[in-house]
Design brief:
The complex is a heterotrimer. Chain A is mostly helical. Chain A is built from 24 helices and four strands. Chain A is 69% helix and 2% strand. The longest helix of chain A is centred in the N-terminal third of the chain and has 34 residues, at 165-198. In chain C, helix 1 (6-26) packs antiparallel against helix 2 (30-55) and helix 2 runs antiparallel to helix 3 (59-89). The N and C termini of chain C lie far apart (58 Å). The chains are: A mainly alpha, B mainly alpha, C mainly alpha.
Chain lengths: 564, 703, 102
């Protein structure tokens, strides 16, 4: 039986956008109300997914849950299908997306005064695009959503942005497009390779999972790099990050929130969903470039990103730019966790992605609130704000602490888990990442001091009014989420456990995880590196579909060895 | 029953903090003090009852009590795992769990006890300050963090408290947020602490990676199991990393710089956080990890040497400072150095004992100095005090007792704990430790000097404050003097809990702690002598000799201070400044360490045109980012545009111009005559069409 | 009474057609020009229906239905263009509409 909850969640924002088309554009308040209702509705509709998913969080018999559609049902001639499905990783990201979508639409109530209708329409379209990326299980569909959400974001920055918006919007669009094109080439290679092996043209991701690991290494490395470029630009990883500060600085507040909160996660999601399970042979190979393995390079630029982003943050004079660079640093932690390639690192990474969405999303809201009042983001323009806006100062403090990873708030849980996972791979990596934590405290506290402490020196700041109820309301869900993850992250770990372990077993067959069969991970039976390309067709054609894994818990009960 | 609900102890103050967060703004001062002080009193009473219950539970065996409330980090089952160093998987797990053993009992008692007294004191001290609820909210939050720290059953939860106290310290140092100096000090405290925290967390990772758990009991059991040799490299690294954390939190060289600046906070904060409780967290953590440290002699040596150096270094700065709180701050750093010296030579119990006694007399000194500052209208410079002993007698008497205690005059608390440390330093087995004793001895001399100097400058000599201030001098209210008296009694008597054998005592304190510091098989064999056994007659004589020496040092130091400061009038001479002016300058400027750090590490000061340190790296990275990386991106864009411009030109003039438009122009020239027939009016065209049709019709019909 | 033959219809249709053509050619108001075009179309319709009756099948009628629909669409588009034009030029005089020259 198929449940359609994913489709419902996916298209609710789009329906909202469609409804908005019929509202006269002069009627701004009606537009705002309708957009907010649909955004809140989109969030509320996604809530029933929580208990439904919770009930089968440990279910290892199927990798993807709530599957909808079937392969090749959309454009059968090329093998494209409308296939949706989620696992624990995409589930969390979907919840984050619906939550942040609501929060950011709520936050734009007074911030957007011109072209209100178009703004909300594009925002809701963007929302659907993002959700689609996390749900799609068909590469064609995935790519459609991936590109489809580029356009609304481009328009959001380009129309409602700051003074230098066109430069930023075009830079954002072209840069990401460059990555997407590379990724498209990679996808096509996988597609044709699947045909070469099985004789079937299909874009179905679960099907491609089965054949991709047999791609010979010399081709796989280029494919990996193509996907890497697509995702690394999106994340953004260290040398590809410069579109981010520009886009963030120029984007409207809500755009920044979504950009930081969700769009960047698509890159990391791509790494987890595609780069890792598709190319285990690349990540486990010992082939080196400049004496460093592929995995070493990934880790290396993550570490550079962590320190470098933090250092650049330290010296920024523009608040939004500071937060943008801090994103580079935080996302460095996420990619570090991913390429640690072990359960702790991966689950910490996904958790940190959620955390980053919450904390940095809130930070952009915070900057946006000051910007809306004073129309400047120069740090030097402020000082002593906590005298005039105490509630605001308190909320800011909480979110800053969450962002710098204070225990009992969300940031700590993610960073700790990532560092723990990284440390067990190599203590050197963790040691290099540790200064990032120190610098995070430095740039955030210094920013806080310059903006909030002291006396009000700028007369323009004397009359600022504190947060309105609506503004407080935008922060409440984020603060609750921050404390929840900080105090009781166990449910999140449980949700992530099964998909993360499967990915680890795919990439590193034989990695000892108590309770999981070591040799045959559920994702695919042929994950082990194939020795010669000549064997590929023979093994692949005759190979049956992936064996169904034993339920993990039954296996755990059978042989509890290894746990202590 | 109380023991089973031990997790409530930190939650009481957390409740107070939450109340202040949500409702504090709208509450009366009386209500604020009732709630905030009330919860701490409840926590203290609860803690006392719990400890009593624990002693029944443990029956003198020191058996730890563990209560796990829920799984915090990890999925709660073994499927979320990490690989240990030996390649076997271990569960990724950290509980919200609480551990009560003799070590945490001691911290629990004095943290809640001293904390309660300081809360009461604050009612009076902060009565006229703004942000009353904020202050008490932070204090309660601090109590929550500190109690979490000392009750945690694993390194991660300990880290929660560890960071939490750092945060509260940050908030409270920056309490007067209008003052830039306060904000700077707060940031400095937090960031320097963070450096230590990074070390700490890496140490914890090392332990988990090596031993497979974050839990104290697991780690201790593993370390004592005998599987690991003394001098194990990984354990040494772990111990050193943990010690980096301790250096940050407990203000040891090289991370001590934040503590003197932390005096920007309100005085009760200095007493509670920066003297009695938080700064001893490092000692607690090292003592808690003693099973690791005894397996890492290199780390132990490092701890001892750093401790001794810190002790004498900070004491030397304390000799010449004029700010009453700064003297006490350096004194605190110095005393913490003592504690680490004790830990480093393996005398964990002695170190802990000194923490215990120090909590009383240093809290008392700070609170007393607060009372003094209160009396002289906020003045902190001792050069503007003098002759206060008759005017604020209770403060004077209690502070005097504390001074005797810290100087090590028998039979006050400091004497017993300090001499225990010096004695252990002297006799500890490895060669070179008598040098440590010598440093400790010198420090004792200096301590006596600067403390006596503080007392004489403040309470003796001639009044040096302005007329108006002098007129307003008054003894503090009961809520402030009450805690002073209680602390004075404790400072006087706490030492008797740990009277050493050589003086006919039974050293009950050490005995109580013994189960915690029990050596593992491997370590016990390696120890050349049983360290906690009554020594022979030789030893006893030596011990007495050392005692006499250190008491003598205290008397000499005090006497020297008496000679120079007892009658200090206006513009009194500083003896060190008179005899060795360069030394005075160096000491007065704190060995220029802050300046050096600013040049080398923070980059706040430039070395010529070059900026080093974090800000230098930040500037360089920003430049690199804007010019090189973004420059490359923009360059790619620019060159694309250049090529595009070129192509456009080519397209426009050559391809389009010659190839396409050329024929078009030709056609146009030819077509010019035809154009004359165009009107542009549809009806005319229609008319022509009709005419044509008619013409055809006529032609065909009449042909 | 004499029977109405196909020829009658054709005559009427021709008359209509001529009226329409004259209207299109002479009137200056675009609305009337459009109406005249309708007249021409209806003349054609009449012819088609008449021939349909003559041949005894439905082909002609089907065509005329298409033309009716087409006429409606054409009127809509034509009027739309007309309104857009009026917005630009504030006139619907055909003499002013000479942009085709360019």
């Amino acid at each position: 039986m198929q449940s359609h909850i994913l489709s419902i969640i996916l298209f609710t924002p789009l329906v909202g956008a469609f409804v908005l088309l019929f509202v006269p554009k002069e009627n701004k308040d009606a537009i705002r109300w309708i957009a907010n209702i649909f955004a809140l509705g989109g969030f509320l509709i996604s809530i029933p997914l929580v208990p439904m998913f919770w009930a089968q969080r440990f279910d290892a018999t199927q990798q993807f849950k709530f599957m909808e559609g079937s392969a090749n049902n959309w454009i059968p001639s090329i093998g494209a299908g409308y296939v949706l499905g989620i696992d624990g990783i995409s589930f969390l990201l979907i919840m984050l997306t619906t939550l942040l979508g609501w929060v950011s639409i709520l936050s734009s109530w007074t911030a957007i005064e011109s072209r209100v209708k178009e703004y909300y329409v594009w925002f809701l379209v963007l929302q659907t695009g993002m959700l689609g990326v996390f749900m799609a299980l068909d590469f064609f569909l995935f790519f459609v959503f991936w590109e489809a959400m580029l356009v609304p974001m481009y328009l959001l920055i380009g129309i409602w942005g700051g003074p230098n918006k066109l430069y930023a919007a075009i830079k954002f669009f072209l840069y990401t497009l460059l990555g997407s094109v590379m990724m498209l080439l990679g996808i096509l290679f996988l597609y044709f390779h699947h045909h070469a092996v099985t004789g079937i043209y299909t874009f179905s991701i679960p099907e491609l999972y089965k054949t991709a690991p047999q791609i010979p290494f010399h081709a796989a490395i280029w494919l990996f790099l193509a996907f890497f470029l697509g995702f690394a630009i999106k994340v953004p990883m260290f040398p590809f990050h410069t579109w981010l500060p520009d886009a963030h600085v120029e984007a409207p507040t809500a755009g920044s929130v979504i950009l930081a909160g969700v769009l960047l996660k698509m890159g990391t999601y791509g790494f987890v969903r595609f780069s890792l399970p598709f190319f285990p042979q690349v990540l486990s190979s010992t082939a080196t470039f400049l004496n460093v393995t592929t995995r070493g390079w990934m880790i290396g630029i993550s570490l550079v990103g962590i320190i470098y982003g933090a250092l650049v943050s330290l010296m920024q004079k523009d608040m939004k730019k500071l937060v943008a660079y801090s994103s580079v640093s935080h996302l460095g932690f996420c990619t570090l966790g991913i390429f640690a390639l072990n359960p702790a690192g991966l689950s910490g990474s996904v958790l940190q992605q959620i955390n980053h969405g919450i904390s940095t999303g809130a930070l952009f809201l915070i900057v946006g609130i000051l910007y809306e009042r004073r129309h400047t983001r120069e740090i030097a323009e402020y000082g002593g704000i906590s005298n005039v806006m105490p509630v605001y100062a308190t909320i800011t403090m909480i979110m800053f602490l969450s962002s710098m990873g204070l225990p009992l708030l969300n940031g700590f849980v993610g960073e700790f888990t990532i560092l723990q996972g990284t440390f067990t791979e190599s203590w050197k990596w963790a040691a290099w990442a540790a200064p990032g934590v120190v610098l995070a405290a430095a740039y955030l506290l210094w920013l806080y001091q310059r903006v909030f402490f002291g006396t009000v020196t700028n007369p323009k700041n004397e009359k600022l009014h504190d947060l309105t109820l609506r503004e407080i309301l935008t922060f409440v869900p984020l603060i609750i989420a921050a404390f929840w993850i900080g105090l009781y992250p166990k449910p999140f770990f449980q949700i992530l456990e099964q998909p993360v372990n499967q990915i680890v077993l795919t990439v590193r067959p034989g990695y000892p995880i108590p309770g999981y069969p070591n040799a045959t991970p559920a994702v695919n039976a042929q994950a082990a590196p194939v020795t010669t390309p000549a064997q590929i067709p023979a093994t692949a054609v005759t190979a049956p579909t992936a064996p169904v894994a034993k339920p993990a818990h039954a296996a755990a009960a059978a042989k509890p060895k290894g746990s202590f | 029953m109380f023991l089973d609900h031990i997790w409530l102890i930190p939650l009481f103050p957390a409740f107070g903090a939450a109340m202040m967060f949500f409702f504090g703004r709208r509450m009366q001062k009386a209500a604020v003090s009732t709630v905030c002080v009330g919860v701490v009193v409840v926590a203290f009473v609860f803690a006392c009852v719990t400890v009593v219950e624990y002693t029944h539970f443990a029956h003198g065996t020191g058996q730890p009590f563990e209560k796990i409330v829920y799984t915090w980090l990890g999925s709660g089952d073994a499927h979320l795992s990490f690989l240990k160093r030996d390649g076997t998987p271990a569960q990724f797990n950290a509980d919200f769990g609480f551990l009560l053993d003799p070590l945490s009992v001691i911290w629990l008692l004095f943290v809640t006890g001293v904390g309660m007294l300081i809360h009461i004191y604050s009612i009076g001290y902060m009565a006229h300050e703004g942000g009353y609820y904020r202050f008490f909210g932070y204090l309660n939050l601090f109590m929550f963090s500190m109690l979490t720290l000392v009750l945690a059953n694993n390194y991660v939860l300990l880290f929660v408290g560890w960071e939490g106290v750092g945060l509260c310290s940050y908030l409270l140092i920056g309490f007067y947020f209008h003052r830039k100096s306060a904000n700077d000090a707060a940031n400095k405290a937090f960031i320097v602490n963070r450096i230590g925290d990074a070390g700490f967390i890496l140490g914890a990772f090392t332990l988990a990676w090596y031993l497979g758990s974050f839990r104290f009991l697991d780690i201790n059991a593993a370390a004592r199991s005998g599987h690991y040799l003394i001098g194990d490299t990984v354990l040494t690294a772990a111990a050193l990393l943990l010690f980096v954390g301790a250096c940050g939190k407990s203000a040891q060289i090289p991370l001590y710089v934040w503590l003197p600046d932390a005096m920007e906070g309100p005085t009760p904060v200095s007493a509670l956080i920066h003297a009695a409780t938080m700064v001893t967290a490092g000692v607690y953590m090292v003592a808690r990890s003693n099973a690791i440290f005894v397996l890492a002699p290199t780390a132990m040596k490092t701890v001892a040497i750093i401790g001794a150096l810190t002790a004498i270094f900070a004491a030397s700065i304390g000799l010449v400072q004029n700010d009453i709180k700064r003297v006490l701050a350096y004194s605190t750093v110095s005393q913490l150095g003592y504690m680490f010296l004790a830990l480093g030579v393996g005398a964990f119990a002695a170190g802990v004992f000194h923490v215990f006694t120090h909590a009383f007399f240093k809290a008392l000194l700070f609170l007393g100095s607060g009372s003094v500052i209160h009396a002289v209208s906020g003045e902190q410079d001792m050069r503007n005090m003098g002759d206060l002993r008759g005017r604020i007698p209770t403060t004077f008497k209690t502070m005097f007792i504390a001074t005797l205690a810290i100087a090590g005059i028998p039979p006050l608390a400091g004497f017993f704990s300090k001499d225990e440390i010096l004695w252990q330093a002297w006799r500890s087995a490895d060669g070179g430790f008598p040098y440590l004793w010598l440093i400790g001895f010198g420090t004792a001399l200096m301590t006596a000097f600067y403390m006596a100097r503080l007392i004489f400058l403040t309470f003796y000599g001639q009044p040096r404050m302005s007329q108006e201030v002098e007129h307003h001098i008054h003894e503090s209210p009961k809520s402030m003097t009450g805690p002073l008296v209680v602390l004075a009694v404790c400072s006087a008597l706490a030492g008797f809990l740990g009277v050493p054998h050589s003086l006919g005592g039974s050293n009950g304190f050490e005995k109580f702690l013994a189960p915690v510091f029990e050596r593992g098989t491997e370590a016990a064999i390696a120890a050349t002598e049983e360290p906690h056994h009554p020594a022979g007659e030789e030893h006893r004589k030596l011990e007495w000799l050392l005692m006499v020496l250190s008491v003598g040092a205290a008397v000499v130091g005090g006497g020297w201070a008496y000679r120079h400061y007892a009658l200090a009038g206006k513009d009194y001479p500083e003896p060190i400044a008179v005899k060795a002016p360069p030394l005075y300058t160096v000491l007065y400027n704190k060995w220029f360490v802050d300046e050096a750090y600013d040049y080398a590490f923070t980059g706040r000061r430039k070395l010529g045109d070059i900026r080093l340190g974090a800000m230098g790296a930040g500037e360089a990275s920003s430049w690199f980012d804007a010019k090189i990386i973004d420059g490359t991106v923009n360059g790619a864009g620019w060159s694309t545009r250049a090529v595009a411009t070129l192509s456009t030109w080519w397209d426009k003039w050559i391809i389009d111009g010659v190839g396409v438009n050329g024929p078009a122009i030709l056609a146009r020239m030819i077509s010019y005559p035809t154009r004359l027939l165009e009107w542009g009016l549809v009806q005319w065209y229609a008319l022509v069409m009709v005419a044509g049709l008619l013409g055809f019709a006529v032609y065909y019909v009449w042909k | 009474m004499a029977e109405i033959t196909t020829l009658h219809y054709l005559v009427v249709a021709a008359a209509l057609f001529v009226l329409g053509v004259i209207g299109v050619l002479t009137r200056r108001n675009v609305v009337i020009v459009l109406m005249s075009i309708e007249l021409i179309l209806n003349a054609v319709n009449l012819n088609l229906v008449a021939f349909s009756r003559m041949w005894g099948n439905l082909h002609g009628q089907v065509f005329s239905v298409f033309i009716v629909v087409d006429a409606a669409a054409e009127a809509a588009v034509g009027l739309g263009i007309l309104i857009a034009f009026f917005r630009n030029k504030e006139t619907i005089n055909v003499d002013e509409i000479d942009l085709l020259k360019w």
